Each structure stands twice: as structure tokens, then as C-alpha cells.
Amino acid sequence: MPDTRPALVFDRELILKYDKPGPRYTSYPTAPHFHENFQRQEYIEEIQRTNSIHQPPPISLYIHLPFCQSVCYFCGCNVHFTKDRSLGTRYVERLLAEMKALSPMLHPQRQVIQIHWGGGTPTFISASVLERLFNGIQEYFNIADNAEIGVEIDPREVQPEHFDLFAQCGFNRISMGIQDFDPKVQEAVHRIQPEKLTRSVIRRCRELGLESINIDLMYGLPHQTAESFQRTVDRIIDMDPDRIAVFNFAYLPQMIKHQRALPKEALPVPMEKLAILEMVVRRFQEAGYLFIGMDHFSRPDDELNRALEKRTLYRNFQGYTTQAGCDLYGIGVTSIGQVGRCYVQNLKKTAAYEAAIDQHGLAVFRGVQLTDDDLLRRDVITRLMCHFVLYKKEIEDLHGIHFDKTFAGAMEGLRPMEEDGLVSLYSDRIEVQPLGRLLVRNIAMHFDAYLGRSAGKARFSRTV
Ligand SMILES: C[S@@+](CC[C@H](N)C(=O)[O-])C[C@H]1O[C@@H](n2cnc3c(N)ncnc32)[C@H](O)[C@@H]1O
Ligand code: SF4
């Protein structure tokens, strides 16, 4: 078996040559290809179909809690900004109603093996209201004893009672946003988060014995330089998290109004961003972290790395996950599900979502039913993105195709990348080489049949 583990190799020239904007492949087809002809009825039919499969897949639940009380100017997440805490209480009632509507549609033996509360800021909502939410999940679903249960927290917005609740409910994974410790950057992005506070939150997570702590950082923010960001990176290494995500700042001021409050002239130029990324890769690898893919690093003993080694790592709307083979149910405003052969997304505005739940129990906005060709290409793209190796025979056996004939064009398109050492094209497999790992989505893009087709205002980001 090829070694998929040698370190990522950073080559500035190759990155500049191949780093074209492209999807992040948390789904295939990507969200701009979802359409509004897919509605509640199509969703219900697909749920019923998955129940009748010989061994229906287990369930992963994503619950979106969209509220934040203060705007981080960089934020591109699906957020509802408000200071009114009562909105959270009303919203949780709708989450319970949505789960109540879904629950009888699912075969009772189907187990939930993963739960994730994402945001916004889940801890904007009080611990007592979140407890009602957790009790509801237990009431409406069959949760496996060893389920992965995770939550995103903002260290500035979490109370001692929240930690008590997480311990009591058996949460075993925490993800928290930091972005950058530099006071000048924090001021420019309107997110003041003292290092002392972050350290105390991490200490509390450790006391609770959480299995995995993830930290989010971001590069490309105003005033960042490779030198300044290295100070943040070194402090993060000292905090010793299990996983680190280093996101490339997606700056879309035409679409995201609050990003216009950022000082544009202070954004790092592309060559500086490249220097920052190079430093990030070097420092984390020197400190013993392994590159998982796209923007993720993990400790060698973290499950993400073990899943990468065993080729069971998967990618969905939550990013990289160890739970391949699940149906993902998205609960709450804007949430996206991946159920059977379809993707489905809920309404995007809180008021509209709540009204739809009150009326029908579900709040489908749009979705897409996947064709055989979509399923084939999704499989190819996912394997490349998650395992850095793809065995043609496995794809042929699963999808009933002849790999080299079906993908003759894609293989031809990869030749220049092979000549540059990014990828190796063998008769039985494709291997992404250490030089190509950072550009893995540019490799995967060769298998995407939708690129170039118009899909509304699809805007893709770059690696750097
Ligand atoms: C949905 S947020 C939830 C985290 C939590 N609310 C907090 O701020 O601590 C998850 C992460 O998305 C990343 N993110 C937000 N806006 C982004 C943008 N415009 N470009 C790239 N990453 C972004 C940040 O790293 C953030 O921590
Ligand atoms: S980064 Fe987190 S806290 Fe800040 S606005 Fe976005 S979701 Fe809210």
C-alpha cells in the first residue's frame, strides 16, 4: 500500500501555477446546483427509501444554532445577529418541532452515531434552554452509546453552566474559534478575545476530559504578516489542541455587508498570504501535527489522522469527518442534509424557517437528487480529497464502469500535474503526492462535471 503519510511539501511556484478558484467539495454537486423543485415531498420520499434499504445507514445530526450577539467583521457563516436572548428560546422550540416531525419517518432501529451543534454561537442560548434541546434529541432519536457529540463554542460567550451541561450530556468534542491573538488584528475584525480567556476555556475542556479539542484560525485578515501570525501559531502549539483548522479568509464584501467594515488597505497581499501559509505548514509540521487535507491539521493520535490512514475519512458539510457512510440530517435554519441520494437545505431566514416549521413541521428550501454520474464523481472526488489515493478497481466494482475509459479526459488533464510531481498516475491507482496535497481540490476539479456550467452567482475561493 502506498504511504499516504509523508509530510506535505510546500512549493510557492507550483501553488501559484495551479491555485485556481474552486469548490471546497463539502458536497458534490455543490450548493449552487441545488434547486427549488426539490421540496418537502421529495425529501420525505427519499427518507422513506433509505429506511427500506437492506441495512439503512446510521444517522449524523447537524443542528444549526445561528445567533451571535456581536459581529466579527470577517464572518461568512450563516448568522442571525441579535441581542435578544428570547429569540433563542423560541427558536429551540422550532428545532424540537422539526425533530418531532422527522422522528416517526425514521426506522426506529436507525442509530444516531454523531451529533454536532454548529453556529453562529450555540452558547448564545442559555444552558437550561440547550438542555431542553438535548432532551428532545434523546426523546426523538435513538442515540448510540458511543456517539460522537460535538459543539462549536466562542470562548467569549460561554458560561460555566454550559460546561456543566456538556459534561452531563456526554459531549466529547469541542471546536472553538480563535482566528488570531494579535490585538491589532482583533481590533480590526471587531473580535477582542484575550489569550488568557481562551486558555482558561481550554483548561476547562481538558478538566471535562473531552476527547478532542479543535481550534479555528484564519489567515488573510487585516494587518496579518507571516511574522505576526507566527506568534499566534506558536501560542496555539503551546496550547496543544488535537486538531487545528486554518481557514483562508473568504473576503466577499459585495455579498457580505459587514465585511465592508474591514480596513481593505490592511489586508495582506497575495505574496504575504503565501508566506503566511508556508509558515503555518512548516510550524505545525515541526510541532508534530499532520496535514489532513485542505486546511486541517491533527495530532497523529487523533481520530482524523487514524481515519485518513485507514481510508475511512470522509468529507461533508461539517468538513472532514470520521463518520463515513452516515445519512446526515440537517436541523434548523439554513442547515444542509445529505440523505440517501439527495442533498436538502432548509430555509435561510429564521422567520421563514420558523413559519414553515409551524405550518408543516419541515422547512425545506431546496435540494437535489443525485444521478448515477453524480454519485460516481462524488465518490472519486471524496476519495482523492480524503485519502490522497484512489484505487480504480474499487470505483469500477462499486459503480460498474471502466475507470480509464470513463475518465479519459480527466486523466489527460492531470498529465501536466503529473509532470510537475503533484500527482502520480499509475495503471491501478492515482496518488496525490506531498507536493500536491495542498492543491488537492485543484486535482479533484478534473473530475467535476459541473465546472464551467453556470449556476447562479457561484463564487469559489482559492487555497491561498
Ligand atoms: C461558524 S464559525 C463558529 C465559531 C464560533 N462562532 C466562534 O466564532 O468562535 C466557524 C469558523 O468559520 C471560520 N470563518 C468564519 N468566517 C469565515 C470567512 N469569511 N472565511 C473563512 N473562514 C471563516 C472561522 O474560523 C470560524 O471560527
Ligand atoms: S465568527 Fe463566530 S462569533 Fe463571530 S460572527 Fe461568526 S459565528 Fe458569530
Task: Write up what this structure looks like.
With 464 residues, the protein is α/β, with parallel strands linked by helices. It folds into 2 domains: 1-25 and 371-454, Arc Repressor Mutant, subunit A (Orthogonal Bundle); 26-369, pyruvate-formate lyase- activating enzyme. It is 38% helix and 21% strand. The chain is built from 17 helices and 19 strands. It has helices at residues 12-18, 40-51, 86-102, 127-140, 160-169, 183-189, 195-207, 226-239, 270-286, 303-310, 350-360, 372-387, 392-399, 403-406, 408-413, 415-419, 440-444, and strands at 59-65, 67-68, 80-81, 111-119, 142-153, 173-179, 212-219, 243-248, 290-293, 296-298, 314-316, 319-321, 327-331, 336-339, 342-346, 364-369, 389-391, 423-425, 429-432. Strands 9-10-8-7-6-5-4-1-13 form a 9-stranded mixed sheet, sandwiched between helices. The protein has a 3-stranded antiparallel sheet with strand order 14-15-16. The longest helix has 17 residues, at 86-102. It starts with 11 loop residues before the first helix and ends in a 20-residue tail after the last helix. The model has no long low-confidence stretch (mean pLDDT 94). The structure holds S-adenosylmethionine and iron/sulfur cluster. Residues 74-77, 119, 121, 152, 154, 176-177, 179, 216, 218, 247, 249-250 line the site of S-adenosylmethionine.
